[in-house]
Amino acid sequence: MEKIALNKEIILNATEEVIRRFGPDKANITDVAKSLKVSHAAIYRYYNGKTALWNAVTERWLTNLHAPSNDILKEDSPADIKLFHLLKEFAEAKHRSAINEPEMFANYIKLARSSMEVIEKSIEDGINCIKEIIVQGVKEGIFFTKFPHQAARAVYFATSVFFHPNSLEDPDRIQNLESVVNLLIRGLKNPNK
Question: Does the keyword Endoplasmic reticulum apply (predicted)?
Fold first, then answer.
């Protein structure tokens, strides 16, 4: 019998705790159910198996990780400044997570490797944020491109090396990121301005 009222948020919170305790490879739905004092069948009412649950945990982590990006999109700044801030935030978000919660960061990296559809959605969300700023820049007459989505993809992939966990240890990472971003912004700028 269920001892508590379940919902997806409660299950995700419990799953994160179980993953912290056992790691993503050893943790399972039975562990989550035990921590909530419910049957594993109760969890299956919300998530169709371990993969779905682990994907939901990874998606929530990525959403929380990139939440500050939404504030940057709302900034009252010219597009070139906003784009610089956004790309720097993309790089710094994972760095902060690695420093503030190293065990969870390591766990999420493992989870992310097996959650390709979640990762692909996160990448597309990032590209769409960049596209929104590029469209703003075109309207402001700062950027020149006929294909904002293609330009956004190019900007994302040109800077994605700085978002990757392997880059976090590079002492010149921020300086290199800023150099690349400045180069990309110059490439997007309208030559008539």
Answer: no
- Cα separation, 155 vs 66, in Å, equals 17
Residue-wise pLDDT tens digits, 38-66: 998 999 999 999 889 988 988 888 888 88
Pairwise CA distance, residues 11 & 26, whole Å: 17
> Which three-class secondary structure state does DSSP give residue 163?
coil
Tokens, residue 27: 């943790």
Could you please state the CATH topology (level 3) that the domain comprising 8-47 is classified under.
Answer: Arc Repressor Mutant, subunit A (1.10.10)
pLDDT in tens, 149-189: 999 999 999 998 888 777 778 889 889 999 999 999 999 99
Is there a shared CATH topology between the 8-47 domain and the 65-188 domain? no
Say if CB 94 and CB 122 are below 8 A apart: no
Residue 189, SS3?
Answer: strand
Query: Hey, what amino acid is at 131?
Result: K
For residue 23, the SS3 value is coil
Q: Does domain 65-188 have CATH number 1.10.357?
A: yes
